[in-house]
Amino acid sequence: TALGLETVVLDVSITPNRADCLSILGLARETAAAFGLPLTLPRPQVREAADKAADLMRIEIPEGELCPLYMARIIRGVTIGPSPAWLRYRLLSVGLRSISNVVDATNYVMMELGQPQHAFDLNLLEGGCIRVAPAPEGLKFKTLDNQERLLTAADLLIWDGKKPVALAGVMGGAETEISDATRDVLLECAVFRPGTIRKTARRLGLPSEASYRFERGVDQVGSRLAMERGAALLAELSGGTILSGIAAAEPKPWATRVIPFHP
What we know:
By secondary structure, the protein is α+β, with helices and mostly antiparallel strands. It has 7 helices and 13 strands. Strands 1, 3, 4, 11, 12 and 13 form a 6-stranded mixed sheet that branches. Strands 2-5-8-9-10 form a 5-stranded mixed sheet. Strands 6-7 form a two-stranded antiparallel ribbon. A hairpin with a 4-residue loop joins strand 8 (about 155-160) and strand 9.
């Protein structure tokens, strides 16, 4: 009671076809629809500086089928430190450990809105470019857990202008991870082809909360809200400044599916 911790836990089992329920928003939306209740969405307040993110970073996606959408926000002048108690306790309540204010912000948005995000140390990215492309056969790549992974041409990577920096949808790279020395952050928010992420995560034995969601499909339309929510929360927790606009590429825009049938 003194710490203000929740004493009730809802343990919800989600079937594979209900990726939309892998978040607090998804469960709230389902409840609102079932009981005719109003649904309240987060309303992030993004305060931007004059400099434009798109002037510092361009996004390249040669194969849109593998990555229909990739967005990035840049936050400058961050201070890495512990998250406030309310955030640490909320992450703990859903089984996630607190790491730092920047990483915790991405995990919080993933659990809240169902959209995994990743934070890179901007000053460790080279070439002013983010490219989403498959790995060359036999490439060795060191992930965040300091393990060297042998990749195949079926694995999807995030590259900067010179090198691979993350195993798309599965785990970031050791060379560009957030550390106490980080001052500028590139925040990633993307949509990847589910089958590609599933095969990589299974083959490498790297299951994660992020890959679990990407494997089942994330909300491409709702990813813009998640991008803004993540940037606003990260800036609030770290004292950083959000650059104007979003660096983005969407080679395969979302198209509403029409299914004809005879009633």
